[in-house]
Amino acid sequence: MKLKDLTALVQSQAGTAEFPMFKEAGLVIGISVPTLGTWGNKKIKALEMRAKTEAGAKAMIWLKCEDLAAGKVNERRLIGWWWWWMLMFDVVL
Amino acid sequence: MKGSLVGLVLVKMGECVDPYVHVLLLCALPMYLRKLHVFFFSVLLLPLPCTSCARTFTLMKVDSSAKAKYSNDELIAWAQAADAKDGDLVCIFAGAAGKMADKTREVCGKWRHVMGTELGYRSEGFNALWVVNFPLLEWDPDEGR
Hints:
The complex is a heterodimer. Chain A is an alpha+beta fold. Chain A has four helices and three strands. Chain A has a two-stranded antiparallel ribbon. Chain B is mainly alpha-helical. Chain B has helices at residues 2-16, 19-32, 36-45, 72-81, 101-118; strands spanning 61-64, 89-95. The longest helix of chain B has 18 residues, at 101-118.
């Protein structure tokens, strides 16, 4: 289990302007809990309730990390250029 | 001429819009222009990285109670900042800054206990702890920890 301060990150994001819980927050902490990301949403919603009753939180935001490896930024830029040249020389259109 | 203009628009859009829109455009345009063979080829190319936005289209799967307000990329940034791995659940708590921040830290501490119990990390009974330097677990503004 790891605790990280997410305040600077969250404050710099566009979505925060419309999110009341983070808009006024001066401290945002994320706790990554192993294996619980595989739980169904129903069980996680029950965890939300436990956060209120057992930890005394007003609210808890959760984030399930189902597949993080697939989304790594990839620097290869071949396909788009291929497309671009195809379109550029009217090969496909 | 038409192709070159569309090509420029595609490249330009890829830099500034959501990757899904780019994918939609890549597939929808050939469909609109009735180039079915191009459409099917585009579908095959989708898992490969895009040119302009330099991302793969097999976006990482995250789900969140805040997904209505935050984009997929923003949620992924949370996961990366929290140093989360596949299968992790990131629980996020927020509160006011300054003195009131201790309340948020207290909630986090209690939640760690709850989660520790849930995962079977905590042992039964009590262990003795001799605290030498008080306060042990309070925010120290000088040291920033």
